[in-house]
Structures are given as structure tokens and as C-alpha cells.
Amino acid sequence: MKQDDIFYQAMLARDPRFDGKFFVGVKTTGIYCRPICPAKPRRENVEFFSSPFEAERSGYRPCLRCRPESAPRSPAWIGTSAVVQRALKVLHAQESLDFNEDDFANQFGVTARHLRRLFIKEIGKTPKQLSFENRLNLSRKLISETSLPISEAALAAGFKSIRRFNAAFKDRFKKSPRDIRRSKISKTENLRLSLSYRPPFDFAGLLKTYKNHRMGHLEWFTDDTMFRVVHHNGQVGTVCIKDHADSSCLMVEIEFPDSSAVIFILSKIRAMFDLDSDPVIVANALEKDPDLKKILKKYPGIRLPSGWDGFEVAIASILGQLVSVERGRALVHDLIEMIGTDSGLTNELGPIKLFPTPKQIVDADLEKLKTTRTRKQTLKDFSKALIDGKISLEPTQDVDAFIKQVLKIRGIGPWTANYMALKVLRSTDTFPGTDLILARALDNHHPELLNRVRPWRGYAAALFWRGYTGTVAKKGK
């Protein structure tokens, strides 16, 4: 069977496993759709594209019904060169809505002109054009899924001129913002949005991991929901995250005083829950080991665990060296309570303090923190290195260079450095082999396993932690 015929069968079945992996251009209407779109055009009337950029270059406009910009991202979207791949990741997670081409290109050691040339060659659009489209896509999501006033949705997406927003929106989607607003959306005090993923999705496994490693009172949980305090630009709010497996999406409820923080919050959730992972590709690699395949069958849709904030995870990694998960969690809680700033919020556990900043840790008296003197100094040295720019927590950096730099800090060993690379940088091919749970797990598997599953060793680690947690009380260093 030809690839296009496979795509057509997947489209007819509305199979969510293919969501974002290809797009369907409908010749008779001039629109392009996700494979899960309810529309079912005839085979002779469709053509297929590996990315939305290809579809738009061929003259198609995005479907108003299935909203292609809401699909999980796929490797086919991110170009071929390392520079373009890194740049696109930053673009999609960009916290600032202001875009300067020169400043953006400097992050990757190239000129704005060279980066534009690479983007046009591989994607068909410049970084500035994609940044602009990201704003429009976010605005349409807010208009389609929430009761937020249209003018506020435009401002939240970074548009300072409503007139310019209306013109750009109509040019891209061929309808005005008011025309696509769904009147059936009920008004709510908080923003409620969906974030799609490809099934299977081990939400329960991620929830269990984050509950076991929760950050003081900043995170709390029910059986199927995670709550998190959000601190951004001096303001504080909360987010609620719940899985809707029937719709293959997370439902997110945001309570925050400034709607312009939505792009920051959604990018955090997308990364924390590994929503753009392709479980089929990961499974194909992990199933090369027969015993690993058995664990994956028990926990399908494994995702790479990380955390809300890289600095939080890094500090928790240092405090978690050579102690149980429970003890590490308690130390994190104590650190927050000792030197964290009052958030002004409370939950059933009591008043909530924010996670301390690097400067607060450097300046703090940690005498009462019940850990070793060396570890207390390591917290300060790591925070100082971050302030001085000697260490970066940017996920797109070179992983080996990061590990090498982190290992220079006294008190940080291979376990901590690799654990940070896995969870802070979200490196898919990092395996903290000195972790006692992972080491114990490897004893039960073929010695060539780690070579077989590259570049997805991080997912193998996640699967081992999922399957073997509870068999070992302490972590390695």
C-alpha cells in the first residue's frame, strides 16, 4: 500500500496517533486539515503534506473546524539543520511576545540574514513570519475555546493594535475573529483551553512522578488532576491540568491576573507533559529489547518526566543526591519554607511560598537546612554559576557541554549532572546510569539495550522508573 493510501485510511479512521504527523489538503475547498478532522473528502480530492508549512506553501488555508495549529508538533515540522531545529524550539516556547530578528539570531551564533535564509530553505517562512503566525494561532485558540473578549485575546497574543490584529486574522483565516467565535461557549471566570497529544499517553505515570517529586506547597494533586502555582513577571496565579483521554488532550484551567501570560503557561505545560512526543516512534525503538517491550505493554505511551521550572528541578536534584525520594522532597519543602517569598496564596496545606530564586539561595543562611555542609555550598555554587552565566538551563544547548560544565561544581557527580540533563534539558538520549533504580533495572536486561534504543535512552530511563520504582529506596550519585 502506498504511503498516501495509508494516510487516507488513517484520515477516514480519524486515528489520533497520526495527529500532527501529516496534513490533508482538500482541493475542492482550498483548506488543509488534521487527519482527525470530521470532514471526509474523496480520495481523488485530497493531497497530503508532512507539515502545515508545506500545505500553506501550496496555497491551502487552515481549516476552521479542526484547527491544524492545535495539532501536536512533529519532527517533520522542525527542519533538517541543527540551527533551525533549535530556533524553532525557542520560537514555539518563546515567553516574550516581542520579536527582534537580530537578537533572536544571536542566540544561535548566526546573523539574522543567514537564519532567514535557512528558514526559507527548510520551512518556507522566516522566523519573524512564524512568530507572527504563532500569535495569530494563539489568538484563534483563545477566541475558539474561551469567552475571553476578542480585544483581550488579541492583546494576550501580543497584538497592540486591534485594527492590525483584525486585518491579519482575516488575511490568515479568511474570516473575522467575530465570525469564528462560538456563541455556545459559556462565560467562566478562568480560562479553559485544550492541548492535544498523540495517544497512547501515560498521564497517570507523569502524575505519579510529579506527585512524588512535588515542589513544596507549589504543587498539589487529586487522583487525576494536578494543580500548580504560577509565578510570572511579578504576578501569581494557578493552573489546573487534567487528562481528557477520549479527546486525546489535556484540559487546562488558568487563573492568572494577566492574560498575556497564557503563552508562557501553555509552553510550560506542553514541555512538562511532553505533549509533542510521538509514542509510536519511541515504542518502535524501545521494543527492540523484548523485556523492555513487556514493560512498555504495561505502561504504553511513556513520556519523559521533567518539571515546571528547570531551576527548581536542578536544585531538587542536588538535594536528592544519595537520599530517598521522600527525604529529597522534604528537603525541597524545607528550603522553600525557609527562604521562599510569600505568594499571597493558600491551599488546604496552608500558605504557599514561591520557590527561591538563585540570588535568594546565594544570599541565604542555610544553616538550619538539614543536609550536609557540602551540599549547602553546592546549592550556592550552582546558583552563583547560573547568575554569572557560567551555566545555562536552556534546553536547546549541547548536552555534553552542559554535563561537563556542571561537573566542575564541587558536590555534583555523574548522577546529578545526567539527571539534570534528562529532566532540565529534556534530553531524550540521556540515561543516568548510576541511578540505583536504573542500575538495578539494567541487571535484568541485555547489556546492549542502551545502544539498541538510541536516541531514546531517556524514555528507557522513564520506563524503568515507572516499572521498577519501589524496589530501591535510594538514588545514586
Q: What is the rounded Rg?
A: 23 Å
The computed structural class is alpha+beta
- How many strands appear in the DSSP assignment? 11
Number of helices: 22
Uncertain spans, ≥5 residues at pLDDT below 50? 472-477
Task: Output mean pLDDT.
Answer: 91
CATH architecture of the domain at 264-276 and 305-427: Orthogonal Bundle
What does this structure look like?
With 477 residues, the protein is of the alpha+beta class. Among the domains are: 68 residues, DNA Methylphosphotriester Repair Domain, CATH 3.40.10.10; 100 residues, Orthogonal Bundle (Arc Repressor Mutant, subunit A); 136 residues, Endonuclease III, domain 1, CATH 1.10.340.30. It is built from 22 helices and 11 strands. It is globular and about 70 Å long. The C terminus is likely disordered.
SSE topology sketch:
Elements lengths: L2 H11 L9 E4 L4 E3 L12 E4 L2 H6 L3 E2 L19 H11 L8 H6 L5 H11 L4 H19 L4 H7 L5 H12 L3 H4 L10 E6 L6 H10 L6 E3 L3 E8 L2 E10 L4 E7 L6 H11 L6 H8 L3 H9 L11 H10 L5 H15 L2 E6 L2 E4 L4 H6 L9 H15 L11 H8 L7 H10 L12 H7 L6 H4 L4 H12 L9
Parallel strand pairs: 2-4
Antiparallel strand pairs: 1-2, 1-3, 5-9, 6-7, 7-8, 8-9, 10-11
